[in-house]
Amino acid sequence: MSDCLFCGIVDGKIKANVVYQNERVVAFRDISPKAPVHILIIPRKHVISVLDVEASDHALIGEIFQVAGRLAREQGIADSGFRVVVNSGPDAGQSVFHLHYHLIGGRQMAWPPG
Ligand code: 5GP
Ligand code: ZN
Prior knowledge:
By secondary structure, the protein is an alpha+beta fold. The protein contains two helices and five strands; from the N terminus they run H-E-E-E-H-E-E. Zinc ion is lined by residues 1, 4, 6-7, 46, 98.
């Protein structure tokens, strides 16, 4: 989608600090980090939200979690702990409408989240 910020990052038209990418997935540092490690993991494919995941996306979603685990190890937060968060819709505060998984860690976190 031409007017999508994260499609722009996927296409290289918008700069991002990319920490991992392959044919299906891109991971880059959040521009406004909420923890020492805050990485966004996205499918290259434009999927709007959790509500738009289809049967044909099952392998893709599984791969995103595998990438999350790989990055957690690489970033040194595998043992201390981390969260993988997807905000969906207004109450959750979703602000970019291209599916993204926040990988957050490197500090103690509260539960329940605010
Ligand atoms: P959401 O609020 O939709 O769950 O998460 C969107 C995230 O994208 C926010 O954490 C925000 O800081 C991040 N973000 C917004 N614009 C940019 C950008 O241009 N570059 C990067 N790297 N992150 C962005
Ligand atoms: Zn997009």
